[in-house]
Amino acid sequence: MHTTLISPQDLRSLLDAGTPLQVYDCSFDMADPSLGRAMYEKRHIPGAWYADLDHDLSAGTDLEAFCGGRHPLPTRERFAAWLGSTGLRPGTQVVVCESRGVTFCTRLWWMLKWCGHESVAVLDGGVDAWVAAGGTVVPGQPPQALDMSTPYPLSAPTVTARSAGEVARDLGSPTQILLDARATPRFRGDVEPLDPVAGHIPGALNRPFQDNFLPDGRFKPQAQLKEEFLGLLAGRDPACVVHHCGSGVTALPNLLAMEVAGLGRGTLFPGSWSEWCRTPDLPVARSS
Length: 288
Known about the structure:
The chain is α/β, with parallel strands linked by helices. It has helices at 8-17, 35-42, 76-85, 105-114, 126-132, 164-169, 184-188, 222-233, 251-260, 272-276, and strands at residues 5-6, 21-25, 49-50, 93-97, 120-123, 160-161, 177-180, 205-206, 241-244, 267-268.
């Protein structure tokens, strides 16, 4: 069972062996949300489903949500209905990927574990790495969705999440180490292109999520990731890390990278800065 990363070579081995497998392509572009589906339709791994960040992996404004923020998580029940419409069943090995690198597919990686589906792995380097390794891609529309009345059967989550209230309650406690994955200028409060308030949660550390990757889009080696995270934590307990970002999406490459580094599976604050800065009376910090 693959539960963190999977290489293109290992994915090919699973396909060649006829292993029950389901692939999801999460291609997306924050600046142009319509571009993700276009990238999928241009090329994707044969048989891959398309998972849209805005429509499939977020609640939207008209649905009950698990948290606030710009990309609120749907409830587990709503997400299980979507998973059921793709035909996913417990025990199936899932591989998540995207056209360019590894960012948005980590959201689906985490959400599947949130629903109790542990056998899910991120394709290291994305579709680019798959093609570079000789993998086949095809153009075309996503598969036809099935009846949403047969949801994926939920089980206990294998990941943990914190609400804005829980994060606020433990501000300053050694049992909570906040790790912000946004670009450093946004973290400092120099700029804020997306949310109404600039700055960061008081006491948070900053590790831009792009720092986890090699130039070709693959994750850095395990030893290098471990050294970098331990250097940033400076003696603090990795088990206490709570990951966040702007809207709970780009925090997840950090969370996955820490697990790849052998530092355990951290906690996610899914509402992240976009929920925090919209919640009355919560403190804001800036740094130069």
